[in-house]
Write a structure and sequence with these properties.
- Helices cover 26% and strands 35% of the residues.
- By secondary structure, the protein is α+β, with helices and mostly antiparallel strands.
- The chain folds into two domains: 111 residues, Roll (Thiol Ester Dehydrase, Chain A); 153 residues, Hotdog Thioesterase (Thiol Ester Dehydrase, Chain A).
- The strands form two sheets. It has a nine-stranded antiparallel β-sheet with strand order 2-3-4-1-8-11-10-9-7, sandwiched between helices. A two-stranded antiparallel ribbon has the order 5-6.
- The protein starts with a strand and ends with a helix.
């Protein structure tokens, strides 16, 4: 079962009529989780030229098939890299695993302590730029009933189905804010917190956090409502990044974000921090 999409990058578009090839390899395994590296290639059927269009790093857990609820995690056999390329990928995967564990611990500590510098969250401190739009202008929610065609043999909704709904909701937000053609450029920190099952009613909530000059960060929260008990559970969260394009498919400037509440400011500052960290990471 998919538990996390560490990173998904959209390097180039795939066009109608192209032949798509996906290559997947196991990169790292702990006792309870494993990292897979997926690369997507598109081949032009006329020129036979091939392009690397997408890269993704996904984390999975194994489920115990003897569990009737299909929810108990099973242990994973050890993975021993044998080539230099495998050892390099393994080291990167292990670093991601340890970094994630450290981040979870820091999050628990931050939630247990009072938030610093509350004054910085005052929206009056931030300029109201011309043509800026509030996050409430673009806020979007999709509601979807999960059917057998969305599920695996065990009745659990497939991760790709959930991701498509999240991308659709994020796309609605990006279009509403930009009022132009928009495209996904990356998916970060997509978490699978709990399974969604056949017959669940799913709510996909999309909120614009941050805009730079030419990109947008959109946060997605997915909740599943059981049609039998009526209980709602947060099942997925994710950060999607989009860019705005002109009629010639070139990136164009994004209109500013109007920060009206303390929550708007907090989301904006968190998004700005992630944006700057990503830029530093790419420049290394």
């Amino acid at each position: 079962m998919t538990t996390r999409i560490e990173q998904m990058d959209f390097h180039e578009p795939v066009f109608i009529g192209e032949i798509v090839t996906m290559r997947t390899k196991l990169g790292y395994a702990s006792s309870r989780s494993m990292m897979l590296v997926v690369k997507v290639y598109a081949e032009n059927s006329k020129t036979l030229t091939k392009r690397h269009t997408n890269t993704a790093i996904l984390w999975y857990v194994a489920l115990d098939r003897s569990d009737p609820k299909n929810s108990r995690v099973a242990s994973i056999p050890p993975f021993v890299p044998t080539t230099e390329d495998e050892r390099d990928t393994y080291a990167k995967g292990e670093a991601m695993y340890l970094k994630r564990k450290k981040a979870e611990e820091q999050t628990r500590e931050r939630l247990a302590s009072p938030s610093p510098n509350e004054e910085a969250l005052n929206p009056e401190l931030y300029p109201k730029e011309p043509k800026a739009a509030s996050p409430r202008v673009s806020h979007s929610q999709l509601i979807h009933l999960m059917l057998p065609s969305d599920c695996t043999e065990g009745g659990v909704v497939q991760g790709g189905v959930i991701m498509k709904l999240m991308d659709n909701a994020a796309g609605c937000v990006a279009w509403r804010h930009c009022l132009t053609n928009v495209v996904t450029v990356s998916v970060e920190a997509m978490e699978f917190k709990a399974p969604i099952r056949n017959g669940d009613l799913v709510f996909v909530d999309a909120h614009l956090n941050f805009v730079s000059q030419k990109s947008l960060e959109i946060e997605i929260v997915v909740e599943a409502e059981s049609m039998t008990s009526g209980t709602r559970t947060v099942t997925n969260t994710g950060i999607f990044k989009f860019v705005s394009l002109d009629k010639d498919h070139r990136p164009v400037s994004v209109r500013p974000l109007l920060l009206e509440t303390r929550d708007d400011v907090k989301r904006f500052l968190d998004g700005k921090r992630r944006y700057e960290e990503a830029r530093k990471s790419r420049s290394k």
